[in-house]
Amino acid sequence: MSQSKPLKDRNFDNLASRFASNIYQTTKGKIRQAVLLRDLLELPELAAPTAILDVGGGQGQLALKLAALGHQLHLTDISAEMLQLAAEEAKNQGLSAQLQISQSSLQDLPQRLGGQAYPLVLCHAVLEWLAEPEAAISQLRQLVQPGGIVSLMFYNQDAHRLSNIIYGNFAYVQAGLKAKKPVRLNPQQPLSPLQVLQWCQQSGFSLLGKTGVRCFHDYLRDRSQQQSHYAELEALELQYNRQEPYASLGRYIHLLLRA
């Protein structure tokens, strides 16, 4: 893929508070959290306390939810500001003992961990911010134990294209989804689900499950219903987001992968 400027991995230092208000504290973030928790808590591997590595876990919202259920979390991110917020919230919730924090990029983690691997590795909304997302898949493979699971969520190129056509952004779509002035909190490069799955299979993963994240939320004609009818919307998301064609319409795709 040719680029006018080489992509760089994204670091959210100096944007942590905006990231929280624009993502985590919105209905978008609530649905994302609900879907991921549902998918993860159905895994037999989480029936008893286990060690979990959260790669690029930011402010640790999901990590803290899992820590509160008795699991031991190792939260990593390249943003010191994000990790500081996670540490403060862990202290507020009395979960500091269950949350280990390391500032590191995904690329550096295999070496920094010295070969240590985990039964469950989370990597959510990271790939689309990386300059080399394909390489990240093989790096994740080094971090998970044989037979372990990787929970991988990424920004869906197909849904991104569909939503922009629905919104009437025809020039943007015809330009190959390349913005002249990228919005800082918008992903650098949405990814093709078929391409990502191919990368995963080439790295030795098998697919356990696929879920769409925000299959309906972002397409509502009346966006005020995202808040006014949130409970109904979340219930419908959870009911249909593993079924096709809805699973493939999610703004994010969540894959559960067996190493």
From TrEMBL:
Pfam families: Methyltransf_12. It catalyses: 5-carboxymethoxyuridine(34) in tRNA + S-adenosyl-L-methionine = 5-methoxycarbonylmethoxyuridine(34) in tRNA + S-adenosyl-L-homocysteine. The gene is cmoM. PANTHER family: TRANS-ACONITATE 2-METHYLTRANSFERASE-RELATED. S-adenosyl-L-methionine binds at R32, G56, G57, D77, H124. GO terms for molecular function: tRNA (5-carboxymethoxyuridine(34)-5-O)-methyltransferase activity. Gene3D superfamilies: Vaccinia Virus protein VP39. Belongs to the class I-like SAM-binding methyltransferase superfamily. CmoM family. Its EC number is 2.1.1.-. CDD domains: AdoMet_MTases (cd02440). This is tRNA 5-carboxymethoxyuridine methyltransferase. HAMAP family: tRNA_methyltr_CmoM. GO terms for biological process: methylation; tRNA modification. Residues 53-150 form the Methyltransferase type domain. It is an enzyme of class 2 (transferase). Catalyzes the methylation of 5-carboxymethoxyuridine (cmo5U) to form 5-methoxycarbonylmethoxyuridine (mcmo5U) at position 34 in tRNAs. Keywords: Methyltransferase, S-adenosyl-L-methionine, Transferase, tRNA processing.
